[in-house]
Amino acid sequence: MEDKITIFHGSEKVIEKPEFGLGRKNNDFGLGFYCTQEKELAKEWAVSSLNDGYCNCYHLETEYLKVLHLNSPDYSILNWIAVLVDHRLFSIKTPVARRAKRYLTDHFSINVNAYDLITGYRADDSYFDYAEAFLNNGISVGQLARAMRLGKLGEQIVVKSNYAFSRLEFLGAETVDKNIYFARRKDRNDEANRKYQEMLEEESDDLYIQDIMREGVTNDDPRIPRNVSESCPGSAGGCF
């Protein structure tokens, strides 16, 4: 990661000074300021079906920050979902899912609060449903890894610590038209769901969460897909 990066935050309002400690604790990686380096994606996240939004732009000095790159080959898809189940509210429908949540937390979780900055997949709309399906033994770990790339959502960057917040510089905000960007967001989600349904028709001999628990699978098992980030389409360039 470069010493200074440009990041974007989609919101219903202009946020000139993001404040440490605000937000929802049940977000993907807990409390933090959720951004992306992909400007077009931030615009999609800024709007709803009823309201326009704002794409806020910042410089972030990353030198001296302790960064957790969840999408690096050092981590597996199970590290990502373990962090997710620690923070998001999942629908635990079966005894398998209850055991799975405990197993993932015990064997794959990471203390995200020990870091200043986190990069990783964003569990947006359908993507959260895919993670939930894995937890309930509905899809394999290989299918989960494939599903997380279906909509090309790219990475989110989460500013976690007070120190990291102090290194944010607000550069400006741009109004985002809901009539353009909500449709793009919906199209992306619909396309991901279509591909997901096609994937479900394929036979899978990968590990399911019940297999992982029965075999006592750990993070160094070569059958567990590693997290390798793929670039996502759209403009990641400068501000406006």
Characterise this structure:
With 240 residues, this protein is α+β, with helices and mostly antiparallel strands. The chain is 35% helix and 18% strand. It has helices at residues 39-46, 77-87, 95-108, 126-135, 141-147, 162-165, 178-200, 209-215; strands at 4-11, 33-35, 53-61, 67-69, 117-121, 155-159, 168-176. The protein has a four-stranded mixed sheet, with no helix packed on it. Strands 1-3-7 form a three-stranded antiparallel sheet. Helix 1 (39-46) crosses helix 7 and helix 2 crosses helix 3 (95-108). The longest helix has 23 residues, at 178-200. The model is unreliable at 230-236 (pLDDT under 50).
Largest β-sheet summary: 4 strands, mixed
Mean pLDDT: 88
Query: Order of strands across the widest beta sheet?
Result: 2-6-5-4
Q: Determine the N-to-C terminus distance.
A: 22 Å
Structural class: alpha+beta
Query: Using only CA atoms, what is the Rg?
Result: 18 Å
Number of helices: 8
Helix content: 25-40%
What is the overall shape? globular
Secondary structure: number of strands: 7
Low-confidence stretches: 230-236
Q: Report the order of strands and helices.
A: EEHEEHHEHHEHEHH
The share of residues in extended strands comes to 15-25%
Structure at a glance:
The protein is of the alpha+beta class and 240 residues long. The protein is 35% helix and 18% strand.
Please give a handful of descriptors for the protein shown.
three-stranded antiparallel sheet, 18% strand, globular, alpha+beta, four-stranded mixed sheet, 7 strands, 35% helix, 240 residues
